[in-house]
Amino acid sequence: GDPLRQPNELIPTLLSPVGDIFDKLGFFELVLNLKSRTIEELFLEKETSTLDALKLKWRISNVMLDRFFKPFLEGIYLTTLEEQSSRMLFFVLKMFGEDSVSLPKGGIGAIADQLASAAQDAGTEIRLNTTVVEVVSNEDKTFTVVAKQGKRIQSDAVVIATDGMIAERLISQLDGFESLKELPSQPQRSVGCLYYGFKGEPPVKEPILILNGIGDARGKPE
Q1: C-alpha–C-alpha distance, residues 218 and 57, integer Å
Q2: Which end of the chain offers a freer environment for a tag, N or C, measured as fewer CB atoms within 10 Å?
Q3: 3-class DSSP state for residue 133?
């Protein structure tokens, strides 16, 4: 629970088996610290790994890491705490502490639908199934986007929002960024998402996030 927003959850939170009293005090101190600072200040702080920030600065135990922070944060960033940024840790925790977390009634896809609808109402044309193979910078400081189907689109600006390998290939074609072609390929991580269903009433009806906090056994086959 969050005793700062739900005072009646103070005792259950202190008595919960997730971490000891020192973990809870350290986490409470961290939350208060984040509430007193702006997002801009958080991103100006010296960056470390999330693991170092939690263990060395905020004195979080391995038990608390295994039962809460690892399943929670690794489920968000799909990588280990050693590879996560302390700045993003502070940002996420601050956002979770600012207000309630929710999902659209129509599912997470409703967010994209809402953005697309607003863009189209403003006169934006959205093209799907159009693979971009090249971005050309023109002498007049405009750009030409070349699609696989042969279509060429003129633009004053281009936003490249795709996975790292494709973004690197497209950007390296632009003047001044040719050196990107010489960089070694960055490691990629594939992930999957499984949805489970069961018959009968759900075991939990409250709007809470359930984490798999069984530590080292998490993610290993039976």
Answers
A1: 26
A2: C
A3: strand
